[in-house]
Amino acid sequence: MTRTLATGNHVAGYALALAGEANRDARGCCAGAYPITPQTEIIEYLSDFSFSRGRVVLVESEHSAMGVCIGASLAGARAFTASSSNGLAYMTENIFSAGYYRLPIVMMAVNRTLGPPWNIWVDQGDSLMMRDAAWLQFYCDSHQDLLDTTLMAFRVAEDHRVMLPVIVALDGFVTSHTQMVADLPTQEQVDEFLPNCLIPHGLKHAHPTTVGGMTMPNETEHHRFEIQQSMENAISVLEEARNEFEGIFGRRPAGALETFEIEDAETILVACNTMARTLHNVINERRARGEKIGMIRLKMFRPFPREELLKAIGNAKRVGVMDRNHSPGSGGIFWQEIAATLIGRNDVLLQDYLVGLGGGDVTPENVNAIIDDLNRRESASTPEWKDTSV
Amino acid sequence: MTTVTPSKPYREHLLRPGNTNCAGCGMSVGLQWLDEALGELEPVLVIPSCCGIVTAGAFPTSGYGMPTAATTFASSPAVATGISTVVNMTEYENPVICWAGDGGTYDIGLATLSAAAERNEDIIYICYDNEIYGNTGGQRSGATQIGAVTSTTSGGKTEGKKDIMAIMAAHRIPYAATLSIGNRKDFLKKVRYALSVKGFRFLLMLSPCPTGWKSEPDQSTELVELAVRSGLFPLYEIFDGVRYRINQRPDSTPVDTYLEQQNRFRKLWNNSEDIQAHIDAQWRYLEAMATVFPAKAPSSTR
Fold first, then answer.
1. CATH T-level fold of B26-292
2. Residues in chain B within 8 Å Cβ distance of A205
3. Does domain A257-386 have CATH number 2.30.30.140?
4. Would you tell me the crossing angle of helices B110-118 and A62-74 to the nearest 10 degrees?
């Protein structure tokens, strides 16, 4: 274990490389790689890494980057890549393929606003666009969280009760290009945490099948049902992985969600990624003034942790959601999910706040304005737009 | 030399009985001759969305006796890259073969194909070219011949066929060749040569589609022979993208004998000057290349 100061992209590259290297005694590792701001440094890091049994294929598009990952994974390798924004949009067809093939590919999604107009700053709309692909999704609030989550992603994805790909999301620039202290594990620790990748339904000469071929409606329905069951399994598999992780690395990574000061909270704010860290500080200040306020950091978005969220909300009267994403004609995507979770809970006032879209810097002042608005309310309204420039 | 460890006491055939190919489909001959050329080799097949994946039939059966990956339309060379990467860094020595139609090759998959060729991936890419989007009912593609009537060119296609061999040669890949299902000896020789070299190998096979060509299913191999003899579909090889060898020159067979047996060419019946001009130009180019840059006997084999 080495304590170091590193950028988010460096930490992500390090975690992917050690995870890939950990499969060297099996069928190795492979990445399809294509640059896009702000994830480019991740694939640069991987391209420079000397794998014992592995290759980074420098392809011509994100669509092919995921294509290479699919092929490598079908052949039994540990496969991974990284992308952002319009790159993820261009990759979409093969993102869905990877999920429906049930291949345990891990992808870093460095969140960036989708264009046009061109904007390179953070907005979670790009990875959330993939919410209906059969991928698990984790959102990270810090460099250590990013490192731990990336290693956990492989462990959960490759578990045979799950066997689905995982997106690990982090904020463009705010996380990807800033430096924070992180404890980097050794290869030996990662080797112990990640057993050899074994994909039971890959390409095999002993039992030749057409993987991804035609199915009838009832078989397709069953395929989707099994994916849903595997998604639900992921919650308990994640808990097991946290225990294993703690035993090997000596720290306990966050689970499906992280709570702060919720025990007696009447008002609860929900956020993800670095916005949650800003929120954390504001909660501390307001608690010092005697306010009964708490927060939930949503780390896992797919599967959506409904039971854990209901338990965390408990008897709170007001819940505010901070959405750094926008589904035009509806509102925030996290809000939609939480509203569906709170069906029947008429005692809770749920309000959505669209904040920091297009990378606007969400400051403590913005967060305080949101909390003031939430506490004044007698009823919820359509999603509130909170301009961070004022 | 390739080491082959059989996965079973017997080797499965590449194309199994019960596949869903239409009568007279060029793929049926092509896949069986490919199987013959492979000998004991056990390939992995990578097939994008096209008739070739319909061939497999519905789950849980598979018309292919070898492990097959069904990919998205534009992705077969990328998926094959991932597979061949793992095959080359682990125990297997068996070939990774893309089997794709002209839509996936000339059109939607061209960027992916170009990139895999540029990286010289260890893949054999075979395009079964039926000169239409056959799987969707016969629409125009970049491979459709000038004048051909398709479901989206009712007056006949106004543009000519893309020269995919020249495009692939421009990537300076180790080997590119055309295949005829009317010439077994030539077909087997070229596939065996392709199997003997490393790197990106491109094979183009004219593949009759009686449904789309509006031709008689029992005439498919004869039609390809006529396409070769009239000069419309030349049989040739390109080594390293620069050295040319012509395998069969046109005889005096008029192209009309090829066109008249296919209702898709009805606009060209008694009106074949444009396509004849295309044939003449194509041969001036090929003869010039074969004269200036002749292929010596192939030397390097793996």
1. Rossmann fold (3.40.50)
2. 7-8, 42, 66-67, 94
3. no
4. 70
